[in-house]
């Protein structure tokens, strides 16, 4: 990893795959065809892109039963423990409807209502990501969303990965369709004969899925379009070099576009970490990906003191921030922008990725300046409640009419005054 | 207004102005020029579009003082009372950072941080909208946003409307720039020599402003892109006909695209309201706009009973819903989708537009299915906090590593295991 001295214009390189014009066109065509032809388009594209010929888009109970026979006890235990922790944390995020009253009879309030339905996209491909399923489904369930749908592209044999089916079943998700790509997003947004439309689509996917989500946004709600994953480790001279190196590598192995950054005031630590990263890298199965990521997007930034390090972190607004200093809790109040903050040497990022309970879907690419981790709030919406009394209207009506006329809206003023006549 | 009988496929016509390709190109060019040339581009476009030649983009103290001389006491009283109510309601929306601990030493939490800065767009043109300023500024202030900037296009004499300056001053907003249109949005998103960039842009504007907001989204956050305003009145046979008609008209006068709908099981009421609307319409100053709106987008839907009326409301998911039935509070729990609900005959929509305290920036065009009124939450973001203890990691580390390997991420597993060696 390259070591650079901090200066005021520092930035980290982050690249977002926004897709090509050609990919955009393909996505628009796919969405159009699904809107027109429904299920027929879904089976057509599934055969074309996933090389799977399906009789039934919907996953059947027997397939789920079969999946359980392929999962060992240790895996099941780990998944169940993670689900329990994630549910526990998200249950603490729920908010209540509330109201306030005044002596004049006015009642104002804010009503919280869960969305009616949510659709979760689960990527297919080489690996299965049970943690993504948990992180999307659990906040929706805790919010009280009644209908939760999962879609995922089948393998050429027409099946989904066993661990995907088992995780969904453990969570209580029963409506699962074997369809992926832009065609799955179109089905969730507009509905087909088999798949009724949903109100919100969440979950990660490839560039076609991302482009399709962007295109259907407005028709339905979507979660953020995620950029590549990033970590910033803020460390002082006493931090454990091997831990830092391992954590930087765990980010780098995700993706060649992933970004791993160390910020420290210690030149000694900087050099030791650079060496240790090289050493640990050698034996990684995903060595080539991690190496490419580190070469392009990895950086060790050496500052002159802790305050300057904190300044750098706030400028970067990282998705993940690990604080490996003597007194990490003292620093939390100074961090203005981060998706998640991991405190101390036992809070390795994978603890939060999989298990502790917090959500791993976090704002990337500097958007932690204004965005939040996925949460229960993302699956509810608010409605304002206004109940005005006769007394309140008599007392305040003329003021309301004054503002309405100030804005040139006479009918607004009259709607108030007609109620005050003969009072 | 036309009266239609309910059937299962009912929908209301809603049209969103999405702009033309030509308008899109103009906006892209303006944004590009502001990014390249900064202030020079702003003064250029302000001269071109607003016919104002400015020496200084920033509003000076003397201009604010001058504005106060043009506002009468009654107006000032009304504005101050509205501000007080709106601030009171929004203060009840604030949420606290929280944390939870476990016996094994784990600490998890959710930290709430206000955005650093927010930019508010205030439209210029024929009328001034002090209520828009309040509804955008107050939630940002209550959230704790440190830097709140206002932009608004000047009149040809280089000035802003006095009531705009007075409202801003009453709220405590001091950073105001005389610039509007797409160029103002570009300045807020990318910054110029005079106008530092912000993290989030809110506030209504014309199609150029809307397109510009859409284009800079991601670089900064934006609020929703609002569609035309809508009201649905849900009424039974005992409701006051004159009040309903006045409220439908107050929506219709906004805009030719605005939508006013009455849903009722009473054919008698339906016919009486249609007649009364016609009568009240005659004397309105904005008669032509209201008439055009009612002809295109106005509708009275007659259902067979209250349950069916409620079903219609949920299908429409209106921005504003007035409930004018015998027991309006009994119905609130059955309404799943609405931006704001006004209960009873004294809760005319303008009460909420201007004065009661709730926010008047609400989800339009059916997006109340998944969106919320503008609130304090829109000016804060969350950060997850994870502090794991050695004990917790020793107990759970193997489960975490199991899930990591299930996902094919070996470096994730090793980041955990390196911390467990020799324990």
From TrEMBL, chains A, B:
Residues in coiled coil: none
Residues that coordinate or bind NAD(+): 121, 183, 206
Reactions catalysed according to its record: L-histidinol + 2 NAD(+) + H2O = L-histidine + 2 NADH + 3 H(+)
Active site, UniProt feature: 319 (proton acceptor), 320 (proton acceptor)
A GO-annotated cellular component: cytosol
Pathway info: Amino-acid biosynthesis; L-histidine biosynthesis; L-histidine from 5-phospho-alpha-D-ribose 1-diphosphate: step 9/9
Top-level division of the source organism's lineage: Bacteria
Cofactor: Zn(2+)
Binding of substrate, residues: 229, 251, 254, 320, 353, 407, 412
Cofactor note: Binds 1 zinc ion per subunit.
EC numbers: 1.1.1.23
GO molecular function: histidinol dehydrogenase activity; NAD binding; zinc ion binding
Pfam (any one): Histidinol_dh
Binding positions (Zn(2+)): 251, 254, 353, 412
Broadest EC class assigned to this enzyme: oxidoreductase
GO BP, sorted A to Z: L-histidine biosynthetic process
Keyword Cell division: no
Presence of keyword Zinc: yes
Keywords: Amino-acid biosynthesis, Histidine biosynthesis, Metal-binding, NAD, Oxidoreductase, Zinc
Function: Catalyzes the sequential NAD-dependent oxidations of L-histidinol to L-histidinaldehyde and then to L-histidine.
Similarity annotation: Belongs to the histidinol dehydrogenase family.
Classification via PANTHER family: HISTIDINE BIOSYNTHESIS TRIFUNCTIONAL PROTEIN, HISTIDINOL DEHYDROGENASE HDH
Official protein name in the record: Histidinol dehydrogenase
Encoding gene, per UniProt annotation: hisD
